[in-house]
Design a protein that fits this description.
flat, 31% strand, 50 strands, mainly beta, 6-stranded mixed sheet, Leucine-rich repeat, LRR (right-handed beta-alpha superhelix), 725 residues
C-alpha cells in the first residue's frame, strides 16, 4: 500500500477588513450568520484564528468565540498521483459533525488529517482529503450574557490642536463595547481626549502640520493688566524679521498691544497679530520701515468700534510721526474729516480677520497690492479703498450687504472683482469709478440698487453681468427706470462713446466704454431705449428674471450679433431691434426669430422678406412682434400654434392678400391672444380656421380678450347669457 504525504489543510480567513473589525471596529449585529469565507488555499493565520499544531494524524485550529466552522465541504478524494478517485458525500457529514469546541470561551477545532477508506470494497488506501472550510461569525443577541473578548490594548491616540484624541482602551470583539485600561466598561465620550490648542506639531518651517499656524516668536515683552486679567505686548528686543504674536502668555490671553510697542523695528518685514488682541495702540508699528505684510484682527485701534473715527483708519497703528521709509497718507474718515499717518512705503499685503471696514479705512493707501477682507464683514464703507491705485484684485465676502459710495474709486490697477454668495444688496454711487484696468465685473443677482456712475471711466471693461438695467431692480409707481448708460454716467473720458439713451423727451447722453462687448442682464425689465445706440456691443443675454423688452430697447446696436431671450419675457416693444443690422436671427420657414438655446423660435421678429406668399410660424412661438409681417402684400396664408400669447401692433398691416390664418387652438383661445392696435389693418378678408370652427375678420376684430371673457363669465354667474366665439 502506497504511503501518501501528510495532510494539506486549506483555510482562508477574512481579509484586512475582518482583522480591522476584530481590533475595535463596530461589528455588524445581525441575527443571521454572515459568511466570512469559503475559499480553500494555503493555511493562513489571521486575527481571530490561530494555527496551533499539526502532526501526522491531525491539524488543530483555534478560533475566537465569535467565529464558528459551520460546514466543511469535502471537494474530492485524491490519490497520490493527483487524480481524483471519487466523491464521498458521507464523509462531509461525518467530519463536520466531529468538529467540536474543546474549551470554554475559545472554539478549538481539530481536523483529522488522514482517513482510511476502502476503494472498490476490498483495497484499503491512505488518502489525502482536501477541504473547503466555511467559517461564519456567530450572531449575538442584544445585551446577551457573554464573555467579553478583548484584543490587544488599543494605544492612546493623542489629541492635536484641531482634532480630538482617544485614551488607551479595549474593545470587545463580540459586542463592540469600550473598556478602559483596567477593563472597566466606559462610554466613548469618557475616553475622548479634548482638542489641545497647544498640541501643535511643528515642521521645519515652524508651521503646525495640523492647523498651519506659525510658531509664536520667543523673547517678546509683556505687561500684565490686572483690570482684564490679561497681558499686553509691550515690545520686542529680538532680531527676527518675521514675528508671530501669541494669543496666550502664562495661561492668560494676550488682548492688547501697547502704543509704540514695536516702534523702530526697521528690519521687520512681516507681523501676524492673533484674533485674541482687541486693542492696538496708536503708533504701535511706527518706524517699521521694511514691513511688507501684516495680518491683523481688525482695522485701526479697536475691534469694538461702531463708527468711523481717526482710530478706525488703517494708518492709526503706524502713527502720525514721520520716519525714514514712511509715506505720509491723508486718510478721510468723513466728508471733511481726515488724519495724516505715516505708513511704510514697503507695505504691500494686508490680511484682516475681523471687525468692520468703515469710511476711508484704507483711503489713499496707494502702495497696497492685496487686501484680504474679514469673512464676516457686512459692509464696506464710503471711500474705504479710495485711491488704492496699486490694488490688483478684490474678493468681496459673502456676508457683505452694502458697498458704499466711491468705495473703490480710483483703484486704477484693479483688474478683477469677485463676489461670494448673494447677500449683497446695495452698491453705492461711483463705487468702482475710475477703475481703468477692470476688464470684467459680475454683479450678484440679489443686488437691488446700483448707484449712478458706479462704473464711470472703466475704460477697459469688456464683459459684465448686472441684475437689472438702470438704478433699481423694480421701479416704484411714479419712479424712473433708467437706461443701461446710467451706471456709466454722463462724464466724458477717453475710451468712451457718448450714447443718447432714454425715451420720449427724457433722452440723456451717457458715456459707455467702447471696449464693452458682452452684457448679461439677470432680472427686471429692459426699459425703453435701454441699450439704444450701443454700437460696439456684440452680445446680450437676458436671464430668466427678465419679463419685458421695451420700445427701441436695442435700436441701432449696429454691431450686435446675438441676443438671448428667455421664456419669462412676455412682451416686446416697438422697434425693439430696429437698426440691428448684424443680428443673427434664427430662421424657420419664411420668418426670423429670437430666443435662447432651449427655444430659439420663441419670438417672431419679422418676415424674412416682404415678398413672401405664406408663412408657417413655429408651433411653440409665443410672441409675434410689432410690424412683423407689415407690408407683406403677397402673403395669402399663415399658420400659427396655440402657444402664441401676443400679436404686436400692425403685425399684419397691409397684408392685402391674406385669406387664411390657420390657428392650432380654439376660438376661445384665439380671442384671448393679446392683439396690438391696427394689427390687421388693411389686410385681406381672412378667415381664422380654429380647431372648433372658423372666425371671420369681422368677428376676430371684436373677439373678447381674457379680461372681457372673465367679465362675461361673472355676468353668467349672475344669470346673464354669455356667447363665446
Amino acid at each position: 500500500m502506497k504511503k501518501l504525504f501528510g495532510v494539506l489543510l486549506f483555510f482562508l480567513m477574512a481579509g484586512s477588513a475582518l482583522a480591522g473589525w476584530f481590533f475595535g471596529h463596530k461589528m455588524i449585529e445581525e441575527k443571521k450568520d454572515a459568511l466570512i469565507t469559503e475559499v480553500s488555499g494555503s493555511l493562513k493565520t489571521q486575527s481571530g484564528m490561530t494555527f496551533v499544531s499539526a502532526d501526522r494524524d491531525r491539524s488543530v485550529v483555534e478560533c475566537t468565540v465569535n467565529y464558528e466552522v459551520t460546514e466543511i465541504d469535502l471537494t474530492g478524494v485524491y490519490l497520490e498521483d493527483g487524480s481524483i478517485a471519487f466523491y464521498y458525500d458521507e464523509e462531509r457529514t461525518r467530519i463536520a459533525s466531529g468538529m467540536q469546541p474543546l474549551s470554554e470561551g475559545t472554539n478549538v477545532y481539530y481536523l483529522l488529517a488522514k482517513q482510511k477508506v476502502t476503494l472498490y470494497r476490498f483495497i484499503p488506501y491512505e488518502i489525502t482529503l482536501q477541504y473547503t472550510l466555511r467559517i461564519t461569525r456567530k450572531s449575538l443577541e442584544d445585551d446577551a450574557e457573554h464573555t467579553h473578548i478583548f484584543g490587544n490594548l488599543i494605544e492612546v491616540v493623542p489629541a492635536t490642536c484641531t482634532d480630538t484624541g482617544m485614551a488607551a482602551h479595549y474593545r470587545c470583539s463580540l459586542c463592540g463595547k469600550l473598556f478602559d485600561q483596567s477593563k472597566r466598561e466606559k462610554r466613548e465620550v469618557d475616553l475622548v481626549l479634548a482638542v489641545d490648542p497647544d498640541a501643535h506639531s511643528w515642521n521645519e518651517s515652524d508651521r503646525c502640520i495640523f492647523c498651519g499656524t506659525h510658531k509664536t516668536t520667543e523673547g517678546l515683552s509683556y505687561v500684565y493688566e490686572a483690570s482684564s486679567n490679561s497681558y499686553a505686548l509691550s515690545g520686542y528686543p529680538g532680531t527676527e524679521t518675521e514675528i508671530y504674536l501669541p494669543s496666550e502668555y502664562e495661561g492668560k490671553p494676550v488682548t492688547a498691544i501697547r502704543p509704540f510697542a514695536f516702534r523702530g523695528l526697521s528690519a521687520l518685514t512681516s507681523v501676524v497679530v492673533p484674533d485674541s488682541v482687541t486693542t492696538i495702540g496708536a503708533g504701535a508699528f511706527s518706524g517699521c520701515s521694511s514691513l511688507e505684510e501684516v495680518t491683523l484682527p481688525f482695522v485701526g485701534g479697536r475691534r469694538d468700534a461702531d463708527s468711523a473715527s481717526e482710530s478706525t483708519l488703517f494708518g492709526y497703528i503706524f502713527g502720525a510721526e514721520s520716519y525714514e521709509g514712511g509715506v505720509a497718507v491723508v486718510q478721510y474718515y468723513g466728508a471733511t474729516s481726515f488724519a495724516t499717518y505715516y505708513i511704510p512705503a514697503s507695505l504691500r499685503t494686508v490680511k484682516i480677520s475681523d471687525g468692520n471696514i468703515f469710511y476711508g479705512a484704507f483711503y489713499g493707501c496707494a502702495k497696497l497690492t492685496s487686501v484680504t477682507l474679514p469673512s464676516a464683514v457686512t459692509s464696506i464703507g464710503d471711500d474705504a479703498f479710495y485711491g488704492c491705485s496699486e490694488l490688483t484684485t478684490l474678493a468681496v465676502p459673502a456676508t457683505v450687504t452694502t458697498i458704499g459710495e466711491e468705495a473703490f474709486m480710483k483703484c486704477a490697477a484693479l483688474r478683477s472683482v469677485s463676489f461670494s454668495g448673494n447677500d449683497l444688496r446695495i452698491i453705492g454711487r461711483q463705487a468702482f469709478a475710475d477703475c481703468g484696468a477692470l476688464t470684467s465685473i459680475m454683479i450678484p443677482s440679489g443686488v437691488t440698487s446700483l448707484g449712478e456712475s458706479v462704473f464711470s471711466k472703466c475704460a477697459s471693461l469688456r464683459e459684465m453681468a448686472i441684475p437689472f438695467v438702470g438704478n433699481v431692480a423694480r421701479a416704484t409707481a411714479g419712479g424712473k427706470q433708467y437706461p443701461f448708460g446710467y451706471i456709466f454716467g454722463t462724464t466724458s473720458y477717453g475710451g468712451a462713446k457718448g450714447v443718447s439713451q432714454g425715451s420720449g423727451s427724457e433722452i440723456t447722453v451717457y458715456y459707455i466704454p467702447t471696449s464693452l462687448r458682452s452684457v448679461t442682464v439677470t432680472g427686471g425689465e429692459i426699459p425703453n431705449g435701454a441699450f439704444a445706440s450701443c454700437s460696439t456691443l456684440f452680445s446680450v443675454s437676458l436671464g430668466e428674471g427678465v419679463t419685458s423688452i421695451g420700445d427701441s430697447a436695442f435700436k441701432d446696436c449696429a454691431a450686435l450679433t446675438s441676443v438671448k431671450i428667455p421664456s419669462t419675457v412676455e412682451s416686446v416693444g416697438t422697434e425693439a431691434f430696429s437698426g440691428c443690422s448684424e443680428l443673427n436671427y434664427n430662421k424657420y420657414d419664411n420668418a426670423l426669430y429670437l430666443g435662447d438655446d432651449e427655444d430659439p423660435y420663441r419670438i417672431l421678429v419679422k418676415a424674412d422678406s416682404s415678398a413672401i406668399e405664406s408663412c408657417e410660424i413655429f408651433r411653440k412661438t409665443k410672441i409675434i412682434c410689432e410690424k412683423a409681417f407689415s407690408g407683406c402684400s403677397s402673403m395669402s396664408s399663415v399658420s400659427l400654434g396655440a402657444d402664441v400669447t401676443t400679436i404686436g401692433a400692425e403685425a399684419f398691416r397691409g397684408c392685402s392678400a391674406l385669406g387664411t390664418i390657420s390657428y392650432a387652438g380654439t376660438k376661445l383661445l384665439w380671442g384671448a391672444i393679446l392683439k396690438g392696435s391696427d394689427w390687421d389693418k388693411d389686410s385681406g378678408e381672412y378667415v381664422v380656421r380654429c380647431q372648433d370652427g372658423n372666425v371671420d375678420k369681422k368677428s376676430t376684430t371684436s373677439t373678447p380678450t381674457w379680461s372681457q371673457l372673465i367679465g362675461k363669465a361673472t355676468d353668467a354667474n349672475n344669470g346673464s347669457n354669455v356667447s363665446l366665439y
